[in-house]
Amino acid sequence: MLIAVYPGSFDPVTNGHLDIIERASGIFKHLIIAVGKHAGKDPLFSTAERVEMIKEATKHLPNVEVDWFDGLLADYVREKGAKIIVRGLRAVSDFDYELQMALTLKKLAPTVETVFMMTNSKYIYLSSSIIKEIAGYGGCIKGLVPDNVEAALRRKFKRG
Ligand code: COA
After folding, report:
1. Which end of the chain, N or C, is less surrounded by CB atoms within 10 Å?
2. Ligand 1 centroid – CA 9 distance (Å)
3. Residue 62: its pLDDT value, please?
4. SS3 for 30?
């Protein structure tokens, strides 16, 4: 069975991520969305909150599993018996970072391939940080994130 892992920090998941998830789930038999830790990023949502939000937003996709990991991506992928890592590419600015990540993974897990999918042009400018910034100032993020994420952001910033 061809298992693919789509890793990211997903803080929070956006419609840009969701577009990649929907397209990748149509290609691979089983797709694992893996919420990981990016050194240097201080997340707004806990890992459990991020996992729950992705589960809710992907419940219409039966071959999608949502999980988290707390170590090296290469070890996690090996543990899951996956052969493919999916990453979304938005613009040229993503390329250097993605190349570094893909080559590092190749060194740590030589049998695993990184597959890139171009982000839908509708979401090319999106990032989780920009969503948090807009939501933090009370701006409208409708259509940019799943409805459950929009509600979670509203709750988070109301409390904060
Ligand atoms: N639509 C919208 N936004 C997108 C996107 C898309 N299709 N694809 C990426 N992005 C945005 C994300 O929202 C994120 O925005 P942010 O920086 O504002 O948070 C940014 O692009 C990149 O994030 P993401 O794809 O989630 O990757 P990441 O760099 O945050 O996370 C990990 C990468 C967690 C997978 C990586 O750090 C990791 O593997 N960590 C574990 C330790 C390890 O093994 N390190 C070595 C890796 S080789």
Report:
1. C
2. 5
3. 97
4. strand
CB distance 115 to 87 below 8 Å: yes
pLDDT(92) > 90:
no
Predicted local confidence at residue 1, as pLDDT: 67
pTM: 0.95
Rounded to the nearest 5 degrees, what angle is found at the Cα of 36, between the Cα atoms of 97 and 136? Answer: 85
CATH superfamily of 3-156: HUPs (3.40.50.620)
Q: Is the pLDDT of residue 37 over 60?
A: yes
| Ligand 1 centre distance from Cα of residue 8 (Å) | 4
| φ, ψ (nearest 5 deg) of residue 35 | -85, 120
| CA quadruple 129, 131, 134, 138: dihedral, nearest 10 | -130
